[in-house]
Amino acid sequence: VVILTILDSYVRRPEGASRSIGTLLGYVSDGNNLDIIDCYTVIHNEAAGEGVSVMDVKMDQDYHRAMCKLKQTKSKKEGVVGWWSTGTAIPDSSVIYHTWYWGKDSNFVATQSLPSPVHLLVSTDVTAPELAIKTFVMQRSEPIADLVSFHEIPREIRAFAPERAGLAMLQRAQRETDAEVAKEMGETASKSEGEHSMEGFQGAVSNLVSLLKTAQAYVRDVRAGKRTGDPEVGRALTKALCSECFNNVEEFEGLCGNGMHDTLMVVYLSHLTQAQIALAEKITEQVKITQDKDKDASP
């Protein structure tokens, strides 16, 4: 959601703006891990060209505070952890923005785990083979306080289950759009919607089977002493196995059977409702016709 929000903000940027900037919201988890959960755009204006001065950079600070307050009403756990911008490089004006986010006016609270805000740089270069996403922290030089530099730090992009479902829907919509365009151009679509859906389902199942085989081979090698076990991998496997409500094949089959029965019952009730509505419409139409005939026959 964060990356898509940033890209959408760049597409909707004001005319003449070279980039978009905004605020990052998140929290520190598992010691020193920073989770960036949400973000929003902040209106800004900066002079074009090199040598940007402080007077040439403007940002709607009131809007930032209002949005931060609104976001925290939804989740008090999330707070300001940094800011983001689009582009392939860090211009001189980024130092001004980062310095402001480092202050109290931005609602950023420095902690031992997060002493300074982070800067997320998202490239919008469509000619690149992949989307470049980098994270930085700014460090000041001890001899010269005004001398600062941005240092890149490791990052990992993860998607929650609802986000993955949303991405799958976007991909499906793109395929449907491509099929409609091909149809308008007089071309025959290579695959129907049902075939695309079945292909996506088969791909997901194949990917799941491949991951299960990889995990099984890893566990087998560790138990046989062929490789050294990684505690992080073991904890991840334990978490995945313990997150489900079933423990054996019988319970899994029962769970799938109950879900199938519920689905069939919903489909049956839906069809029954449609039949009743159609029957009611026919009866109403026939009663109306009879009443009209009686009126015409009456003297």
What does the secondary structure layout of this molecule look like, with pairings?
Elements lengths: L1 H10 L9 E9 L3 E10 L1 E3 L10 E3 L1 H14 L4 E8 L6 H10 L15 E5 L10 E8 L7 E6 L7 H24 L8 H32 L6 H12 L6 H49 L2
Parallel strand pairs: 5-6
Antiparallel strand pairs: 1-2, 1-5, 3-4, 6-7, 7-8
Task: Explain how this protein is built.
Residues 2-99 form the JAB1/MPN/MOV34 metalloenzyme domain. InterPro entries: EIF3F/CSN6-like_C (IPR024969), JAMM/MPN+_dom (IPR000555). Residues 163-283 form the EIF3F/CSN6-like C-terminal domain. This is MPN domain-containing protein. The chain is an alpha+beta fold and 299 residues long. Helix content is 51%, strand content 17%. The protein has helices spanning 2-11, 61-74, 93-102, 161-184, 193-224, 231-242, 249-297; strands spanning 21-29, 33-42, 44-46, 57-59, 79-86, 118-122, 133-140, 148-153. The strands form two sheets. The protein has a six-stranded mixed sheet with strand order 2-1-5-6-7-8. Strands 3-4 form a two-stranded antiparallel sheet. The chain starts with a helix and ends with a helix.
Q: Rounded to an integer, what's the Rg over CA atoms?
A: 29 Å
For the termini, the CA-CA separation is 72 Å
CATH fold naming of one domain: Cytidine Deaminase, domain 2
Number of helices: 7
Side-by-side strand order of the widest sheet: 2-1-5-6-7-8
Biggest sheet details: 6 strands, mixed
| CATH homology group of one domain | Cytidine Deaminase, domain 2
Mean pLDDT: 80
* Proportion in helices: 40-55%
- What is the annotated CATH architecture of one domain? 3-Layer(aba) Sandwich
User: Unreliable runs, pLDDT <50, ≥5 residues?
Assistant: 50-55
Number of strands: 8
Structural class: alpha+beta
The sequence of SSEs as H and E is: HEEEEHEHEEEHHHH
Strand content: 15-25%
Q: What spatial form do the alpha-carbon principal axes imply?
A: extended
Task: Write down the CATH class of one domain.
Answer: Alpha Beta
Protein name: MPN domain-containing protein
Organism: Oxyrrhis marina
GO molecular function, one term: translation initiation factor binding
GO cellular component, one term: eukaryotic translation initiation factor 3 complex, eIF3m
